[in-house]
From TrEMBL:
It is found in: Cytoplasm. Belongs to the phosphoglycerate kinase family. One of its GO terms (biological process) is glycolytic process. This is Phosphoglycerate kinase.
C-alpha cells in the first residue's frame, strides 16, 4: 500500500499529532543557533493549520546526557514566529496536562509538546506493535484523531513517537517526508550522467555511499574529497603524511583503505581522486600537488587544492545530477574552506543537485550558497536512503 500524504487527510477540526524533527544546534545560552530544521516544517504545519486542524507537535531535542538535551520552549517561540501565529508550549508530552493542552485547542491552533526523549522509552527502539504499547503512544493517542510523520531526519529510528502511532491512528506523511522520499528514494530517475561527490570525515558511511552508487550504476562518476579522499589516496599508494595517516588510524579506518582499494580495482575508471591538496604551513594555506606528497611530518591534508577544485568543477558542469555528501575539507577553518565552497558552488552548474548530510547542509548555509534543487534535512536518514536501506518510520507509515 502506498503511503498516504496530506492530500488524503481532511484536517478540519481534527486533532492531529505531527512528529517533526526540529533537533537543532543550541547556543551556550540555550537559544537556537540554527533554525533551518524548523523552517523546513513550516509548510506542513501551515497547511494543517490553514485546513482547520488542531495540531499537537511532537519532537525531540538532543540525546539524554548530551549538551543539547533541552526543553522545547525556544522551539515553540521560533515556530510561532515562522508560522506567524502562536504556537503554545506545554511542558508535558503525554500526561493529563498534555492531553488537556490538546483538548483545549481550537481549529487552526497548535501546541508543541515537551521533548519526547525526556521519557526513557522514547530513546529505545521497538517493533511498531510494541512501540504502540509504550506510555507515550498509548496515553497520547486517545487525544488524537490522526498522526502525521514529517520527521524525515529521524525516520531511521524505530522509536515510539516515530513508529508507534501508525499502529493505532490513521497516519500520513507530511510534506518534508514526502519530498525527501520522492527525491532521495528515486535517485535513479534524476537526469544522467550522475556524479556523486563524497567527502567528510565519516569515512565508512561515505565509502558505503560510493560503493552503492558505483555498484548499482547510480553514478557514472564518483569524486572523492575530505578525509575520504585521503583514504582513497592512501589506497592508491600515495603517502598522505604522518598526520593524516595517524588520523585515519586513530579513527580505526584501516579497513576503509582496503574497501577503497577494492573499489579502485573494480571501478577505478569512474573514481576521481584529488590532484592537489592543501596543508597549513606557518599559519598559511599551502597547496601541494599529489606528486609532491608526503607533506612535512606536522602537516595534515586539510582540503583539496585549486587544480582539483577546477577539474571537479569542469566535470560537474557536464553533469545531469550532482549528489553531494560530506564537505571537501575542514570548511569550519577559513584556510580550508576553498574546496568545499568551490566544489559545492560548481555543483550548482549540474542540471539537478541533491545535498545530503547534516554538515554538508551546514556548509552550504555557512557559505550562503544557493541554487541546489534538494537540500535534505537528514543526516543519518539521508545516508541510509543513499545507500539503499529502508527507514523504520517510513515502513511504519506504509501499512
Ligand atoms: N581533510 C580533512 N581532515 C579532517 N577533517 C575533515 C577533512 N575534510 C573534512 N573534514 C571534516 O569533516 C566533517 C564533516 O564530515 P561528515 O562526514 O560528518 O559530514 P556530513 O555527512 O555532511 O554530516 P552528518 O554525518 O553530520 O550528516 C567536518 O567537520 C570537516 O571539518
Ligand atoms: O539529528 C539527527 O540526525 C536526528 O534528529 C536524529 O537524531 P539522533 O541521531 O540523536 O537520533
Amino acid at each position: 500500500m502506498a503511503i498516504r500524504t496530506l492530500d488524503d487527510l481532511d484536517a478540519m477540526d481534527t486533532a492531529v499529532g505531527v512528529r517533526v524533527d526540529i533537533n537543532s544546534p543550541l547556543a551556550d545560552d540555550g537559544t537556537l543557533a540554527d533554525d533551518a530544521r524548523l523552517r523546513a516544517h513550516v509548510d506542513t504545519l501551515a497547511e494543517l493549520l490553514d485546513g482547520g486542524a488542531r495540531v499537537a507537535i511532537l519532537a525531540h531535542q538532543g540525546r539524554p546526557g548530551g549538551d543539547e538535551f533541552a526543553r522545547l520552549e525556544p522551539h515553540a517561540d521560533r515556530l510561532g514566529e515562522l508560522l506567524d501565529r502562536e504556537v503554545a508550549y506545554c511542558d508535558a508530552t503525554f500526561s493529563a496536562d498534555a492531553r488537556d493542552a490538546v483538548a483545549d485547542l481550537d481549529a487552526g491552533e497548535a501546541v508543541l509538546l515537551e521533548n519526547t526523549r525526556f521519557y526513557s522509552e522514547e530513546y529505545m527502539e521497538f517493533e511498531p506493535s510494541r512501540a504502540a504499547e509504550t506510555f507515550l503512544v498509548s496515553r497520547l493517542a486517545p487525544a488524537l484523531d490522526a498522526y502525521v510523520n514529517d520527521a524525515f531526519a529521524a525516520a531511521h529510528r524505530s522509536q515510539p513517537s516515530l513508529v508507534g502511532f501508525p499502529e493505532v491512528l490513521p497516519s500520513y506523511a507530511g510534506r518534508v517526508m514526502e519530498a525527501e522520499l520522492d527525491v532521495l528514494g528515486s535517485i535513479e530517475e534524476t537526469p544522467t550522467p550522475r556524479t556523486y561527490v563524497v567527502g567528510g570525515a565519516k569515512v565508512p558511511d561515505s565509502v558505503t555511499v560510493a560503493e552503492h552508487a558505483l555498484e548499482h550504476g547510480l553514478a557514472e562518476t564518483v569524486l572523492v574529497t575530505g578525509v575520504v579522499a585521503n583514504v582513497f589516496l592512501a589506497a592508491s599508494g600515495v603517502d598522505v603524511g604522518r598526520e593524516s595517516t595517524e588520523f585515519i588510524h586513530d579513527r580505526g579506518y584501516e579497513s576503509e583503505i582496503e574497501r577503497a582499494n577494492a573499489l579502485l580495482d573494480e571501478h577505478g575508471d569512474r573514481i576521481r581522486l584529488p590532484v592537489d591538496v592543501a596543508v597549513e604551513r606557518d599559519g598559511e594555506r599551502v597547496e601541494l600537488a599529489v606528486s609532491e606528497l608526503p607533506p612535512r611530518d606536522d602537516e595534515a591534508v586539510m582540503d583539496v587544492g585549486s587544480d582539483t577544485i577546477a577539474a571537479y568543477g569542469d566535470l560537474l558542469a557536464e553533469t545531469g545530477t550532482a549528489v553531494l555528501n560530506g564537505p571537501a575539507g575542514v570548511f569550519e577553518d577559513d584556510l580550508f574552506a576553498d574546496g568545499t565552497r568551490g566544489v559545492f558552488d560548481a555543483a550548482t552548474g549540474a542540471e539537478y543537485t541533491i545535498v545530503g548530510g547534516g554538515d554538508t547542509a551546514a556548509a552550504i548555509r555557512r557559505f550562503g550558497l544557493s541554487g541546489f534543487d534538494h537540500v535534505s534535512t537528514g543526516g543519518g536518514a539521508a545516508l541510509r536512503l543513499l545507500t539503499g536501506e529502508s527507514l523504520a518510520a517510513v515502513e511504519a507509515l506504509d501499512r
